[in-house]
């Protein structure tokens, strides 16, 4: 591919990713993530959520178009992603320690409460990028890591009283990471420029 075509493809991908990310933020995330984290950090969480939704959509466009990312940019984005995860998963003020093991009741709530359904979808999506790092690992090892991550997040939320242990969240995390793992295994896609 010549340089001009590459630059045009790059610019179009970035524009589509940024616009798509903003639309995702505007219509689905703007009031959800910041509200979950509390009013004290509303502005910071809003800006962070908007930026990360734009970056995530740009990466998705890169995956679709086959463009590659500079390794340094990739490392910065990964660091920002993990900071975002810490922020989203443990940035809430809860002070309530609760455990919910009733999967059936949680699934029934999805049919009646749009807020719960959105939370369900976001929980599926939020850990999907982690699967990228395990795309070349064996299935059993990867499943054990995914289980450990999922249970670890929920246990830490319970212990720190920054949320509560919910079995439906574990199911969502597992669904999301496994879907992404399957995608990366089948497509053998790599978005990082290799020397």
From TrEMBL:
- Domain spans labelled VanZ-like: 77-186
Where does the source fall among the domains of life? Bacteria
Asked if the Swiss-Prot or TrEMBL record annotates the protein with the keyword NADP, the reply is no
List keywords of the entry alphabetically: Membrane, Transmembrane, Transmembrane helix
Q: Where are the transmembrane segments?
A: 7-29, 41-65, 72-91, 116-134, 141-161, 167-186
Q: Which residues form a coiled coil?
A: none
Q: Which InterPro entries match?
A: VanZ-like
Matching Pfam families: VanZ (PF04892)
Q: Any idea what this protein is called?
A: VanZ family protein
From which organism does this entry originate? Ruminococcus bovis
Q: In the record, what lineage is assigned to the organism producing the protein?
A: Bacteria, Bacillati, Bacillota, Clostridia, Eubacteriales
């Amino acid at each position: 591919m010549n340089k001009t075509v590459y630059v045009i493809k790059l610019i179009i991908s970035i524009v589509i990713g940024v616009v798509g990310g903003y639309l995702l933020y505007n219509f689905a995330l703007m009031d959800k993530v910041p509200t979950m984290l509390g009013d004290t950090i509303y502005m910071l969480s809003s800006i962070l959520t908007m930026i990360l939704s734009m970056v995530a959509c740009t990466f998705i466009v890169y995956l679709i178009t086959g463009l590659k990312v500079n390794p340094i940019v990739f490392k910065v984005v990964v660091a920002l992603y993990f900071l975002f995860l810490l922020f989203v998963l443990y940035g809430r003020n809860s002070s309530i320690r609760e455990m919910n093991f009733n999967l059936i009741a949680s699934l029934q709530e999805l049919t009646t409460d749009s807020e719960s359904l959105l939370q369900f979808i976001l929980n599926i999506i939020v850990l999907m990028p982690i699967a990228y790092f395990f795309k070349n690992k064996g299935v059993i090892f990867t499943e054990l890591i995914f289980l450990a991550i999922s249970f670890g997040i929920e246990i830490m939320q319970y212990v720190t009283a920054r949320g509560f242990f919910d079995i439906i969240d574990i199911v969502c995390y597992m669904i999301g990471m496994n879907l992404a793992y399957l995608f990366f295994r089948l497509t053998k896609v790599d978005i990082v420029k290799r020397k």
